Amino acid sequence: RRYCMNCGLSFCAEHLQKAHAITSQSTKVHPVCDPCYASLEEDLLRARVAQRVERIDQFLHGALMPYTQKVEDTYSDKALRVARGAIIAANALPLPYAGAKVKYTIKGLDLCRRYGIYALGGLMLQEDVFESIQTLIAVTGEIEGLRFVDVTVGLYYLMAYRRGQRGAVPTLEEDEHAKAGNLPSNDVMDEITWFAPFAFHIPYAEAPTDVQRLARHREFTLVDYCKPDVDKRKPTCYLLASKEKQLAIMTIRGTDSVADVVTDLQAKPQQIDFTWANSFSAHSGILNATLWVHQEMKDPLIKLHKAGYRIVTTGHSLGGGVAALLAFFLRREIPTVHAFAFAPPACTSIGLAIDCQDCVTSIVMHDDIVPRVSGGSIQQLIDEIKAMDAIWRGHASEDLGAFWQRLYTLWAPKFRESEADPLDRAKDRNSTPSPGPLLDPGLETINDPTASTASSLDIDCTPSPAHNSGATPDPSCTPGPCSPQSGTIPGLHHAPALGSDAHSVEANLSSVTSLLDHPPALPLDGTQLYPPGRILHIYFAQGVLKAAFVKQNFPGLCRIIPTNSIIREHRGSTYWEALQNLKAARGAAQRPPKWQSYRDSATCPCCWASFTWNATSNSEAQQNRSKRNCRACGRVVCEDCSSRKMP
């Protein structure tokens, strides 16, 4: 038997589990009953809102006191400084070999800390490719019938297919947007670019005093802020205002980690019932965060609106989703409110997404994964991985076989081919046995159709010297785990054979290609979520960034496109750089060159060598990854001949 310290009534232990401070000035908590807990929370909310409204009055009358910060140097702060100093010192070691060893040791330990034993794959692949695959695995979760290693390798080759698909048709994205998109005006682009720093830079400062300093650089004042210390589901937000511009900006901080965003987006939709609007569905986590910000900041924003200020909400990532829903909730009291949501998640049903087009502008960067994660798009990605499962095994065998052969030579260096005639070299390379095309829709014939069946996992790992390298195999090296003695690649289970005849293989390839290029449409109901408002999609057209307004059911936004840039293109710095490049492209006097298709060149025109001359494998997947389009002339060149960058 327990007593509530607020009302004095007695309760059993089961009904007296909450604790709360009895007065607003006290920090000590006491056990209270559920009704008293709700009443005390309402009292605290009213006190906080009254204090915020008072700060608005002080700002309007020029009597607002700036925020100050009490400096506390904790043990955790000291430990972080020591760790950062150790990494800086390791990277600055004067001995090149020792410095490199320490650097890669630290990198390997960090990858293992984040991803466990599977991080060893990150040392073989490029780090951005590995992180993209890990993020996609976090999205799909466990897939029935496929193990972790199957999904990982399948995603790698699906990413290679997407790269080859775009490289084969350089105008693919531009053609899609020309059919479904509307070009934004220069005034709209300038306005979006002007508000971008308030979403990317200012709200991510460590302390309110830092936000206050950054706001002053743009002639704004930090009027108020909400920064929960315990509940991470409540976002940090800052209210900035400028008397000169008669503008108030509510900027909402997003999540720092893309992995956290993907995890948060797994929640189911929650229905919203309005007395003044239709019932809609929204992402439950973002909806609850929006309701919390709304009850905390509604009265201060309404007071600024009545004083003649324009109200704008903005944010990046999860903060962008909260900013969009907040503008929709405020629209009744503040008809002119508008939200600029950068990289917002798919957080609204189709009805709500369309209904808030007059008050929300969402900006989505190219292949950014966060605005695409929803129930329907995740299922589409799973279907694509399953469809690729029976195709990529021959290519994986070829790549891993080449990896072990080169490892057997202690990673002997490779050199460009010495033949003078590029046509002869192309003929020689095309005569090399291949496991078949990686679903290239432009190829009409299929070489060695049985190579992609389960039996193709048997690899002959007899070491052969690298081409023109002159390397001699080390007799002390033992055959790798994919040697003829083992017969299979470890961790990869056998997939059902596609068929023993060419017609059967062609039929399977045709069905898989149809699924990858023309996925089924997503349902336009409450079960599927979309980015809110008008959507400005930034895309690449032959190396040049362009933008167009598209609808929620635009095919390029309704599916997760596996590329190695899905994480990089979600970062605020990438969005900011893209907006600057868009502005420069609009004012450019010279038109960019026409890009050459990946299919139109067999060798690099700069060095007359094969595109994969410096790569371990010569598979089609590796060829797709080794080809680059020169931004100056548009020709397809190898990776080594396109390593330099110029403005």
UniProtKB/TrEMBL annotation:
Q: Where in the cell is it found?
A: Cell membrane
Print the keywords alphabetically. Answer: Calcium, Cell membrane, Hydrolase, Lipid degradation, Lipid metabolism, Membrane, Metal-binding, Phosphoprotein, Transmembrane, Transmembrane helix
Q: What's an example GO BP annotation here?
A: lipid catabolic process
Question: What's an example GO cellular component term for this entry?
Answer: plasma membrane
| Gene3D superfamilies the UniProt entry points to | alpha/beta hydrolase (3.40.50.1820), Zinc/RING finger domain, C3HC4 (zinc finger) (3.30.40.10)
What is this protein's name?
sn-1-specific diacylglycerol lipase
What's its membrane topology? Multi-pass membrane protein
Question: Which Pfam families does the UniProt entry name for this protein?
Answer: Lipase_3 (PF01764)
Give the EC class as a word.
hydrolase
Q: Where is the composition biased (Basic and acidic residues)?
A: 421-430
Q: What region holds the Fungal lipase-type domain? A: 250-375
Main subcellular location of this protein, as a coarse class: membrane
- In this chain, the stretch annotated as Disordered covers 421-498
> What does the record give as the reaction this protein catalyses?
a 1,2-diacyl-sn-glycerol + H2O = a 2-acylglycerol + a fatty acid + H(+)
Can you tell me which residues the record assigns to a coiled coil? none
**GO MF, one annotated term:** lipase activity
The EC number(s) attached to this protein equal 3.1.1.116
Question: What does this protein need as cofactor?
Answer: Ca(2+)
- Polar residues bias spans: 447-456
